[in-house]
Amino acid sequence: MKTVYLCPHCHANLNPNVKIILVASHRRRKGLILLSPQPGNYKYVWDEHLAEVVSPGVKVNFSCPVCHADLTSRANRDFAELFIDSPDKKPKRVLFSRKHGTHATFIEKGDVFAGYGEDVDDFERTNFFGS
Fold first, then answer.
1. Which residues fall within 8 angstroms of residue 64, CB to CB, at 6 or more apart?
2. Which pLDDT band holds residue 127 (cuts at 50, 70, 90)?
3. CA dist 21 to 10, 26, 52, 65, 109, Å?
4. Phi-psi bin for 57: left (phi > 0), alpha (psi -120 to 50), beta?
5. d(C-alpha 97, C-alpha 67), whole Å
């Protein structure tokens, strides 16, 4: 079964085909970015005009291509947040680093988060529950 990624604001399907589609922006530049839906796979395709202004360590802003809502996590502003649709109809949160080149993704699994990516250990004390 395909994992379905949803906007946490409008619940639009963000991966209607193979890739997750988001809007990425930095300063005044904005464009589409295609992300792998596989946790830990950090290959992406994005607008070449963004690549001109985004270097490693720069925070990128992500927004929904449907409702245009900011996807910055309320629990931790260093991360963007999406939902994964689940069979029990209670969406699970997915958080991924907004810093270009930082490979850290966390997926909610009950009352803990599973980490993916080589930079996960840099965030071991991060609280994603907002308390």
1. 7, 9, 10, 12, 14, 22, 23, 71
2. low
3. 14, 17, 20, 7, 23
4. left
5. 21
Q: What are phi and psi of 120, to 5 degrees?
A: -55, -40
Element (H, E) at 37: none
pLDDT tens figures, 38-64: 999 999 999 888 888 898 899 999 999
Tell which residue, 97, 101, 99, 100, has the closest CA to residue 126: 97
Q: Quote the strand ranges of the chain, DSSP E.
A: 5-6, 20-26, 29-35, 44-46, 61-63, 79-84, 92-97, 105-109, 112-116
pLDDT at 116 over 70: yes
pLDDT of residue 1: 59
Residue appearing with tokens 């309320």: 74
Look up residue 19 and give its two tokens. Answer: 């890739």
